[in-house]
Design goal:
3 strands; mainly alpha
Amino acid sequence: MIPDAITWGTLTLYQECAQESPLGKLAVAYVIMNRSNKWNRPVSDIVLDKYQFSCWNTESGTRLFLDTISSSAWRECHKAFVTAYYAILPDPTNGATHYLNEKLTRKIRGGTLPTWFKEANVTLREGLHTFLKV
């Protein structure tokens, strides 16, 4: 069976932000949908783009846990993605197309943030993530 858009989105949320608040999950879901809508590309293409959602990168270990998703974690991520997919609630990111964990990114990059990070483009800070409209 080939996963559909909602399954791809839910799996991505689980790996990227399962420990975040419901608002944090919804915000990540909207980033996926904002990209999909803006670039007219399927959700699967968006989440699997090289180096865009780190959970799908070759070196990421989060995929090892996909076989052990609890039903409650699945429901939370699924609810957030369906909400964004069908635009049931307003986009809390105000159109963000990118997000990152500033602290982790600085650690990985030796103290710097990517060139696309501009404080003026920040639309939301929620939990560990900063959302930007780039």
